[in-house]
Every structure is written in C-alpha cells, then in structure tokens.
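User: I'm writing a short report section on ligand binding and want a predicted complex to refer to. Could you take this sequence and calcium ion and write out the structure as tokens? A short remark afterwards would be nice.
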Amino acid sequence: MPATILVVEDEPAIQELIAYNLKQAGHQPVRADSAEHALNLVRTALPDLVLLDWMLPGQSGIEFAKRLKSDKRTREIPIIMLTARAEEQDKLLGLETGADDYITKPFSPRELNARIKAVLRRRAPEMTDDTVEIGGLRIDPSSHRVSAGMTPVALGPTEFRLLHYLMTHTERVHSRVQLLDQVWGDHVFVEERTVDVHIRRLRKALEPTNHDRLIQTVRGSGYRLSGTV
Ligand code: CA
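Assistant: Sure. The structure tokens for the complex follow:
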C-alpha cells in the first residue's frame, strides 16, 4: 500500500537516506526540515503518516506532535518519533504525546519499513468494518449500506468502495492515481478519467440529499471529502 509519508528531519543526510528508503519501499516521501515547514505542508495536504525527528531547530518534534494531536483535522495522522535519545523516560514522553511508535537512531531501513507497515496496518481505517458517519451521510461496510439521514442511497460496488475510502480519509486531497491505487487496487490498466466517471456517478447518487457537496474537486490535484462544507 503506497502511503504519503511526511519526513520531518533537519539533518540533510538522514532526511535523504530516509526519503530514499521510503521510495524504495513504494511510499511517497514529502520532506520538511523544521516543524514550521512541516506545519505548512500539513495545511495543504494530510499525509498518511509522519516520521518525526525529536530534536529540531525551532519547535521540537514533541511540540509538533502535540500540535498535530490537539487539532481535530490532524489528530488521526499516525506519528513515528525518530530520536537519538534512548532513555526510557524519553520514550514514555514521546508515546504520551500521542506518537504511535518510537525508533531510536541509528536504525536500519528494514526496521523502519517494518515499523511503518505495522503502524499503517493498525491505523488504516478503510480496512475495518466500522460504520462511518459524516454530516448525516452514513456508510456501513458490514451490511454494505449507505444512507443519507433516513434515505437509503443505492450505489454500485465501485462507488461504494470509493465513498468508503473517501469517508475514512477525509480532509485530504487524493490524486486520481492515488484513488486508482487505493480503490481499484491497480491502476496499470485503468485510465485516470475512470475516476472522474465514478465520482460523477457517486455525486449523482448523493445529490437528492445534497451530500454531493461533501465531495470537492481540487483543481489540478484530485478530490477531497470534507465534513466542513
Ligand atoms: Ca535533528
């Protein structure tokens, strides 16, 4: 599963090495060398995971993690702390802040990848059967039902998967290629415009109750489902 991973690391060599390893593992790294820089990136698009160095110039990694965890929009992003500090006390502090895991430098690419995989598996909500409700729109994967208020919504299987993915990954922009990866599973034989066709069908099905407004087109980038319309 390819994931967008925000790497917040001020040491260029380590940042480079991590980014290289993430690409090798099939992920998409986005880089920042300070918490302030990272915050700007997060404002634009939510990553699937943050690799966060503890010791940063300016705001520390811990402060940045606290900030992400205190904001409703960013609260759910998993965080793995990277640190040279191996003391047990520090580890506890990192985890109390809301970090999902903790890696002590130096670490091997293999260890890093294994941790990332574990955290993503644990935190990937589209893998679960939990009912999700946003703005009165409700999707229940176990019974395969969608309703808008009291009104049942009939969807085709692809629209259902698309909606479920968008509803479990709100507030971030998904490119057509990302959606093909996540919803279709393999985009090699599917054209990007296929996504537009299914988005159109999905919006049409949600139109009678005005829930089509939840799905926003981000020009030049893709689509976003937002509960704050
Ligand atoms: Ca550092």
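A remark for your report: Residues 4-127 form a domain with the Rossmann fold fold (CATH 3.40.50.2300). The first strand starts at residue 4 and ends at 8.
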